[in-house]
Write a structure and sequence with these properties.
29% strand; globular; seven-stranded mixed sheet; 2 domains; alpha/beta; Rossmann fold; 160 residues
Amino acid sequence: MKTYYDDIADGYEELHKEEQLRKLRIIKEHLRFDRSDLMLDVGCGPGFASEILDCRLVGLDPSKELLKRCSFKTICCEAEEIPYPDKYFDVVISVTSIHNFNDVEAGLLEMKRVGKERFAFSILKKTGNSEKIRTLIEKIFSVKKVIKDEQDLIIIAKSF
């Protein structure tokens, strides 16, 4: 299935790289990462996390064209059906992608299922369902910190 992001893959870096790297730096400041951590990046796009975060990465995205640009292991799939066992990842992040999920609650529940304890999310403030997303995150996770960035809310959380 071809996605919108497959269509814009060639220009994705120019459009979003600096903004995404800024958010990843904020996440790195507020969430503990160890080199040995196994981290899942849900909606990883072309893999910008590898430029900022020093850990073992697995990326998940429905865009085959963006995944071709990643320098780490990736899986082409939707967030609502993550093909990993429970509590598999030390850290799970999702940077400005939750608003694209087909079913936000199902995607968040899947991230919680495959994650052990540490989570970070960014929510695009201007998306129409940003408050619904934040409410669902607060219902499903224990929110430790909310950082207001230029275009996003960045939420640091853990499992209950």
